[in-house]
Amino acid sequence: MATPATVHSHAPQGFIRKYIFSLDHKVIGIQYFFLALTAVFVGMFLSLLMRIHMIWPAYSLPLVGEIKPETYLSLLTMHGTIMVFFVLTTAPQGGFGNYFLPIQIGAPDMAFPVLNMLSFWTTFVGFVVILAAFFVTGGAPLHGWTGYPPLSALTSTGPGEQLGADLWITSIAIFCVASLMGALNFITTTLDLRAKGMTMMRMPLTVWSWFITAILGLLAFGVLLSAGILLLMDRNLGTSFYVPLVVVNGVVMGHKGGSPLLWQHLFWFFGHPEVYIAILPGMGVASQILSTFSRKPIFGYRAMVYAMLSIGFFGFMVWGHHMFMSGMSPYSAFAFSLLTMCIGVPSAIKTFNWLGTMYKGRLRFHTPMLYAIGFVSLFVSGGLSGPFLAQPVLDIQLHDTYFVVGHFHLIMGVAAIFGIFAATYYWFPKMFGRMMNEPLGKIHFFITLAGTYAIFMPMHYLGMAGQTRRYSQFTEVAYQQKLLPLQTFMTYAAIITIAAQFIFVINLFWSMFKGPKASDNPWECTTLEWTTTTPPPHDNFGGVTPVVNHGPYEYGVPGAARDYVMQTDPATGTGH
Amino acid sequence: MATYTPTTPIDHIGRGHKPPAPPVGGGDDGSRGGDVPNYGARLRRARLGLICGIATVCMVFISLTSAYIVRQGLPTFDGASNSYVRDWGKTDLPWALLAINTALLLVSSLTMEFARRSAARQAALAPLKSIPGVSLGNEKSFPWLGITVLLGIGFLAGQWLAWGELHDRGFYVSTNPSSSFAFLLTIAHAIHLGGGIIALIWAASASLLQKPVEARRIVVDITAWYWHFMAVLWVYIFALLGFAR
Amino acid sequence: MGLALLLLIWLITLASTYFFVAKTWWLPVGAAASAGFIDRQFTLTFIIMGIVFLAAQLGLGYVVWRYRESPSSPPVTYSHGNTTLEIVWTALTAVLFIGLNLMGSSVWASQRFEPAEAGAVQVEVTGMQFAWYFRYPGPDGKYGATSVKLMDPSAGGEAAVGLNTSDAAAKDDVVTGTMYLPVNREVDLSLRAVDVIHSFFVPSLRFKQDAVPGLNIHMHFKPTAIGEYEIACAELCGLGHYKMHGMVHVVSQEDFDKWLAAREAEKQ
User: Fold this and answer.
1) Rounded CA gap, B219 and B217, in Å?
2) How far is the alpha carbon of A520 from chain B, nearest alpha carbon, in Å?
3) Best mutation site among B4, B8, B81, B83 for testing chain C: the one with the most C CBs within 10 Å?
4) Residue C70 and residue B3: Cβ atoms within 8 Å?
5) Contact at 8 Å (CB) between C63 and A303?
6) Which of A84, A90, A3, A98 is nearest to A46 (CA)?
7) Are residues A53 and A473 in contact, defined by beta-carbon separation less than 8 angstroms?
8) Stretch A73-90: mean pLDDT, rounded?
């Protein structure tokens, strides 16, 4: 058995070692990608059921039947958990990060290939465990992806809070371990396996984003693990970490003295860095693609790096902004609020720099570029609702309303997903050796951009009008009944947009087998993955070690022979 | 579809030209070409990975400590008296037994360090063995690794006795918050230490599997640092339970 | 393609902005003393963010169309950025965001850093799966003791909150399922929860606060307009979260006194 830090140089033989328990980061990256693809369709289906139930509460759906209030809440819980963990924390980092981090820094594989393989299969087990929650007695939990106790800590607060909730916590704990293994690998690889000439400040911004994301994960997931263990203990061992003396349905529970706010602090200490984990790789990909398809260097490379580092750093200091209304000290709220406004600044810098990259460039509108442009638009829209929520005095009105739901969906549920789409269309040729179909890609883009705006922009209006979240129907509160037409519009938009995602899936699978063959560098891009064959050989560079002489985004260099200079091109002495 | 005047000698996107072959150079540990692996580089890499792992375990115990402090200090509202009450309680820990366990673990850290240095020496001297006529004398070395494993198992056995003693004194995991944390922290530490023991047994067996001595040295080195961290962590937990009662 | 992108982005931007500016769906009319300042801060944030939104999105659409590659496009302006520009727009953004935040913090401070005015009406709000109960301490001004062992949600009223009727202070406590408040008088609210976290949210009164089991949270506000306002639970609390609904009736001081006296009389 290989000792740690061994890099194997022989390609494996046999189906199992090549495709199932592969140690090759490229295969593992594709495995993560397909896991996320499966998860996103499960998550989307759950949200479709939710949207249909909200406007037609009495409707009995074929196959699914009637959706009772507890079913709605379990759909909501599982939708959030599956999307946040198994899609947004899996595809950008585990999928594309795993595949391209080693190649973009000129390494033959990750630092610890066995650990890499284990981290994928652990994630897979976590996914199986959470899906199992649907099938046990009582069904999936109904406490929301945030799982606040006492609701999540007591088995009698509703169906689904029995074995389903235990499976939910277990799945998340397994996911924590898998992520921690992955984070360790990414950090060690980035720091130790860079090729000669690949200094930190010559790394593509995608690599920076995966590196910083891994640091966030390393420090945040351990806290979630602790929180989950305490919750399992309260549920099963009679401890009272989170649960004070309470009475449920007239029955006095056996806990006392616990603090529900303790869970919120631990959960959000993880939860806030988690949302940056979800978006940073998308930002890295957007920078890479905008630069490539504008044929211009990224505007302000150093500023982009510092911005991502600040986002990561401040990301650990703002968790209290999820708790302004929780009963937390108002003085803490003031402090968290100020820090939250600070984190808006690096995000704004990145947006200015993306615009600056395209300014006076020569833009090529292949599908990856369309998604990168869409990412910028969605990031602006989703980000600008942040300063409303960051002010406690306005959060009084907007907390736990659809305003928040609109905010995080635009950023995580759309912008981050656009980052994944952009990465897929961009790197598909390198991964599978064929090009995806451009016309289908463009149709998919336009419907998805318009559709997602149609679904999520109106949520801000609903929130301002006082529409509270996690309501399975709006029939009981008079002022909410008036908002039903807008909700209906959103449901129709959702049905159309979800249907359009099948265009993407068809394009993906068709192109894998029948797409036109791709050359080694179809986008005329500068970074290391485009210097090697399509797809790359087992050790990424065919026995040679790259030597890097240039920065990552040398497009349109005056006096150069071509409008792009690859990172491994001979040094020109100009210092770029 | 965008059209453009290409400055590059290609006809259209999708049929890019062959990029220049990159020159050969160094940068990794040399194992690409099938040469002798650079064990120094691998050791550095393994230590870096371990630092990341230790950072994570620290975050777990930092969050548990934070929960400990919060739970200890935070009162809850009691409607019967219309006032706030605290319910931390106390735990009668078997201090003498825990002190013995602490001593065992600290000594095991010492023996672990001897094992680590011995492995480093052997790895350093390994290249000399290929010189004809050179002998390194009696190569049987003191079984520091084995002793560490025994001491580690002794620590775990001692912890098991301590938990039994707590039960005898009427303190269970759900008795009061103080006892909940006492069990949680000591059991969490024991689980991590158990992982370390498995790694030690692995390192010891590596010598039986005829792995290169340099590769074995890496395993012993990493496990040793992890082991020292486990000792420091234990001292911390011991102090927390003792002084933050 | 560049034109298509510009048109789509501009269309989405202008359509969204229209509905914001037209206030087709907007904050309900404020009926509390803090509404004036909260709404002004909201509008200020809204205008500033709206300007940034329009500038960024319209700018994005324009840039994407203007710099599309065509045979007649000029060569790219090779540049790694502009440090002066970076510093300038970073500083401006920081001043804008932090300034906006500090402006909003004074109302937060007055609402939450300071206790209720003297002479405030005292009401205790208790949330439980899935109803709100309101307790008035009566002439003695003291809340009687409650006990979990005496709680019986199905019985409603005093039994639902577990009122210990043998406690002297509890004899004049009034427990109802509807909340009555006198207009133009500060309310000193005590928020409690019996089972899980709930949240007491009255949009028209610009008031929201989580009710957390194990805590007794004090908060104050002042209703300024007579009317009936809906309460919607704003923290997921289980199956009936969507129907955990209540009403706040803000009436004249006279009507309030009459109502409270009638409830006290019913207790005899």
Assistant:
1) 5
2) 7
3) B4
4) yes
5) no
6) A84
7) yes
8) 96
Name residue, tokens 């769906």. C25
The answer to whether the bond into A150 is cis (omega within 30° of 0) is yes
**What's the pLDDT at B137?**
57
Q: What is the CATH number of domain A25-531?
A: 1.20.210.10
How far is the alpha carbon of C261 from chain A, nearest alpha carbon, in Å? 29
CA B6 to chain C, closest CA, distance in angstroms equals 9
User: Lowest-pLDDT range, A55-64, A472-481, C231-240?
Assistant: A55-64
Q: How do the domains of chain A map onto residue ranges?
A: 25-531
Mind giving me the DSSP string for C49-64? HHHHHHHHHHHHHHHH
Q: Tell which of A233, A239, A555 to mutate to test the B interface (max B CBs under 10 Å).
A: A239
Confidence label for B16 from pLDDT (cuts 50, 70 and 90)? very low
Closest-approach residue (CA) in chain C for B6: C71
Contacts of B179 (CB under 8 A, 6+ apart): B89, B91, B166, B171, B172, B173
How many interchain CB pairs under 8 A, B with C?
Answer: 36
Percent of chain A with pLDDT over 70: 97
Mean pLDDT, to the nearest integer, of C120-140? 94
Nearest to B60 among A107, A226, A233 (CB): A226
Domains located in chain C, CATH noted: 2-68+83-112 (no CATH), 121-267 (2.60.40.420)
Q: What type of residue sits at position A147?
A: G
Banded model confidence at residue A68, pLDDT cuts 50, 70, 90: confident
Residue A535: burial class (beta carbons within 10 Å; 0-12, 13-18, 19+) = middle
Residue in chain A nearest B87 by alpha carbon: A257
Per-residue CA distances from A34 to A19, A28, A94, A177, A281 (Å): 13, 10, 11, 20, 18
What counts of helices (H) and strands (E) characterise chain A? 19, 4
Whole-number Å distance between alpha carbons of B5 and B7: 6
| Single-letter amino acid code for the residue at C201 | F
Q: Do B59 and A519 touch (CB under 8 A)?
A: no
Q: C69–A295: do the CB atoms touch at under 8 Å?
A: yes
pLDDT band at B208 (very low <50, low <70, confident <90, very high): low
* Percent of chain C residues topping a pLDDT of 90: 75
Which chain B residue's Cα is nearest to A183? B52
Range with the poorest average pLDDT among A56-70, A358-372, C247-261: A56-70
Structure tokens at A118: 């284990």
Minimal Cβ distance to B67: which of A226, A244, A545:
A226
The alpha carbon of A531 is separated from its chain's Cα centroid by a whole number of angstroms, namely 28
Domains with residue ranges and CATH for chain B: 94-127+143-245 (1.20.120.80)
Tokens of A45: 């289906």
pLDDT per residue as tens digits for the range C55-92: 999 999 999 999 999 888 898 989 898 999 999 999 99
The residue among A116, A110, A119 whose CA lies nearest residue A188 is A110
Residues of chain C contacting B82 with CB distance shorter than 8 Å: 143, 145
* pLDDT attached to residue A531: 95
Strand, coil or helix: B122: helix
- For residues A67-93, average pLDDT: 94
Residue A23 pLDDT greater than 90, yes or no: yes
Q: Give chain A positions within 8 Å (CB) of B62.
A: 223
How close does chain B come to C72, measured CA to CA in Å? Answer: 8
Per-residue model confidence as pLDDT tens digits over C87-110: 999 999 999 999 999 988 887 887
Query: Is pLDDT above 50 for C164?
Result: yes
| pLDDT exceeds 60 at position A200 | yes
List CB contacts (< 8 A) between C175 and chain B.
none
User: For residue A160, what pLDDT is reported?
Assistant: 84
